[in-house]
Design goal:
There is one protein chain. The protein is an alpha+beta fold and 204 residues long. It is built from seven helices and five strands, in the order αααααβββββαα. Strand 4 and strand 5 form a beta hairpin. The chain is globular, with a radius of gyration of 20 Å.
């Protein structure tokens, strides 16, 4: 009886996990495709961050246009100040944040000088099929190993990136703290905070 129950449970597990794994594979496929496209754009730089990175920024902007949920991430980064922001403030910050994330992408990828990467299958199944975590192990030409965790959400049939954790460094949380600090310095003036953010980014 116990064996029969165990067998039935195993069949049920396989029935449930197959579609769930399919969701992860779809999200992972999106991540892998984006990585391949970005590495192709980064390869001419041969691991060196140069003075004029603008051509790379423009190319990465095109690659990530449909795969990164910039509006959502920008909203989360603004935190409580999003509710206080005007419609123009929200548009302005989304624009400058998009630029921020693309520059971060570019300089990180160039600095890593990736030799190889591997997508790691999850140990457990996500309880929410439309939300998947795709971990990528990266090896640089210098022999250093890195871990990149991509948080993906499926909206209207499209998988999009909503956060990245790089070797324990949570980009979304880090940017949110930075915006909060700037907004506090401007005494809650969102427009001024966005202007300061933009000015700082232009110097990096």
């Amino acid at each position: 009886m116990k064996i029969k129950a165990l067998f039935s449970g195993l069949v049920l597990l396989l029935t449930v996990s197959a579609p769930a794994m399919a969701d992860w594979q779809q999200a992972a496929g999106e991540v892998e495709q984006s990585i391949e496209q970005m590495l192709e754009k980064v390869s001419p730089y041969k691991g060196e961050v140069v003075a004029d990175m603008e051509p790379l920024y423009l190319e990465l902007a095109q690659v990530t246009e449909d795969t990164v949920d910039y509006p959502y991430i920008a909203k989360v980064v603004m935190g409580k100040y999003y509710r206080r922001a005007s419609a123009q403030d929200k548009l302005d910050f989304e624009k400058v944040f998009r630029r921020t994330l693309i520059k971060t992408y570019a300089k990180t990828l160039v600095s890593f000088n990736i030799k190889a990467y591997e997508l790691v299958k999850p140990r457990s199944i996500s309880p929410k099929p439309n939300k998947q975590k795709v971990t990528v192990k990266v090896l640089s030409t210098a022999g250093k190993a890195y871990s990149i965790v991509n948080y993906m959400v499926k909206t209207d049939g499209q998988w999009k990136l909503v956060n990245i954790v790089l070797d324990g460094f949570n980009l979304r949380v880090t940017f949110k703290n930075q915006f909060s600090n700037i907004a506090q310095n401007t005494k809650g003036n969102v427009s001024a905070a966005i202007a300061q953010w933009s000015e700082k980014m232009s110097k990096k």
